[in-house]
Amino acid sequence: MPSSEIYTGLQTGVLTGANTSSGSFVSYKIYEQVSCATPPGKFGLWFMYEPILMSKKSFDALNSKQQKALMKAGKVAEKYMTAQVENLDKKFEDAYKAAGVKLVYMDAKDHAAWVEIAKKSSHKAFADKVPGGDKLMEMALAVK
Length: 144
Description:
Blueprint: H1 6-12, H2 22-27, E1 36-37, H3 56-61, H4 64-98, E2 102-103, H5 108-120, H6 122-129, H7 133-142
Helix pairs in contact: 5-6, 6-7
C-alpha cells in the first residue's frame, strides 16, 4: 500500500500497522491513527533506500561530461540525505510524543527475536517466490 494511503487504511481498519519512512510517518500524520509506534534507532527493523534511478539506456546516451556531472550530483544528494536522516527520525519522535503516542524502543533481544521470526516467514517466502531471492536476502542481511 502506498504511504499516502496508510492513514485511511488505519482509519478504516484495513491496516493494523505499517512501515514507511520517518518523514512519511510525520507528513501523513499517521500519529492521529495509532496509539503505539516503534521509532527508528539502533535496532530498528526498517530502513529505506531512496535512490535516484535512471535507465542504463538513458545513462549511456549521455556524453561523458554529462555522466560525470550526474554521478557527482548523486554523491552530493546522498551525502545531504544521509545527514538528514537523524533529523527526520528526531522529528518523528517529537511529533509522536506530542500526539501522545506511546513509543516503544527495540533492544538487541527484541531485534534478534524479530529476525528469527522473519527468517522463518517473510524471508523464506521471498526466497521461495522470487528468482534469486535467497541471494538477495543474503545481500540485504549483510548490510550493517
